[in-house]
Amino acid sequence: xxxxxxxxxxxxxxxxxxxxxxxxxxxxxxxxxxxxRVSRPWADEEPPRDEAETRERLAARVERxxxxxxxxxxxxxxxxxxxxxxxDVPPTPWLSWxxxxxxxxxxxxxxxxxxxxxxLFAAGGLERVEAWADAANTxxxxxxxxxxxxxxxxxxxxxxxxxxxxxxxLGRLRAPGPQRFHLAHPxxxxxxxxxxxxxxxxxxxxxxxxxxxxxxxxxxxxxxxxSAGPAxxxxxxxGGEPIAPVTVVLDAGTPxxxxxxxxxxxxxxxxxxxxxxxxxxxxxxxxxxxxxxLLVGGPPx
Length: 301
Known about the structure:
Layout: E1 4-6, E2 9-11, E3 15-19, H1 22-33, H2 36-43, H3 51-62, E4 67-74, E5 82-87, E6 94-99, H4 108-122, E7 128-134, H5 138-146, E8 150-159, E9 163-173, E10 187-190, H6 193-204, E11 207-212, E12 218-222, E13 231-236, E14 247-251, H7 256-265, E15 269-270, E16 275-276, E17 282-287, E18 293-297
Parallel strand pairs: 6-7, 10-13, 14-18
Antiparallel strand pairs: 1-2, 2-3, 3-4, 4-5, 5-6, 7-9, 8-9, 11-12, 12-13, 15-17, 16-17, 17-18
């Protein structure tokens, strides 16, 4: 039995999920949330100091637009072991979860999340759902996969508590089908395709992909080592025609201070030092000879 809705909650083989009741659940959930092994990866926060602070923080999560939380319990037992959270916000609702460390590696979170996803698709009207997991957190990735979520993309994020981590975006559609589009490849007109490809490889570590012509008139600089994935396309501009510079944003997991030094050592110019953006991220502007601007975001150092 998976994701079965009954008057007192959502039941699975061993568990029951009930809407969060702060008065009844805060004490038990503080056991989980009050542990830094839980609060840091789940909420990017230091742990709450006491039960009252746990109650305040959970209340704030419930008050977010589309926020809903369910408490995880073993069937017939009173202890609140953890929560599963749904943020039902556009464009894609997302899930998160936490559990007492003493209950880890028993399949509890995987069973709870799988039950909730089945319920949300069957009765909740959701068309799709996603979850983010640290790439190094094989446990959380396993939880998402048990609920039928599969890897969709990756990105890097930095927080004062969690540091810089690679995140895996896992998602599932209620009615699976082929994805309409997979990637977008910006095309940069350049005066010398081979020289630009060499600069991107030496300065940023982009991997040479396909190359056409001798000398090259088209080529690809791949952001990763795989045969399919995001890339910058380079196209030879007709001689004498003006080139309109374009701006491309790249999400990097490499410290920007070292990347700036590598770029300049390879002969590239920057648009200035690494700078902190108004939204808190850091950015390095790398300039190609034609004036194209590569805005590279990532950890500062």
